[in-house]
Design goal:
Elements lengths: L9 E5 L3 H12 L3 E6 L19 E3 L5 H4 L3 E4 L8 H8 L4 E3 H5 L2
Parallel strand pairs: 1-2, 1-4, 2-3, 4-5
């Protein structure tokens, strides 16, 4: 997706480490509607309170189901397996899945 195509698009960032949080900030600046997910509990995630997401934009402590997120684009942090069930379901539906560095370097 080009930058202009991100405006008002629903983007799911998978992985709330430093790089995932950087992607959230960048995507929000580009006008995307961002969701963030991580299998770790919120209390274990440092920096999550600094990214200005609403509670309903966070799915933490578990792996989400596709029907919860239904994003226009999925962005994977380093180390996240593209074999997670919700990612595979999205790919079957034609949803683009991007590696994190492709977003941050734009």
């Amino acid at each position: 997706m080009r930058v202009v195509e991100l405006l008002n698009k629903k983007v799911l960032v998978v992985g709330a480490g430093r790089s995932g949080l950087a992607a959230v900030k960048k995507l929000k600046k580009l006008g995307a509607k961002v969701l963030l997910t991580d299998r770790q509990e919120r209390k274990s995630l440092s920096g999550i309170d600094e990214i200005d997401l609403l509670e309903e934009e966070l799915i933490v402590g578990r792996v989400p189901e596709w029907k919860e997120v239904q994003a226009d684009l999925i962005v994977l942090s380093p180390g996240v397996s593209p074999k997670l069930s919700f990612i595979q379901e999205a790919q079957l539906l034609g949803v683009p899945v991007s590696l994190l560095y492709a977003i941050i370097l734009r």
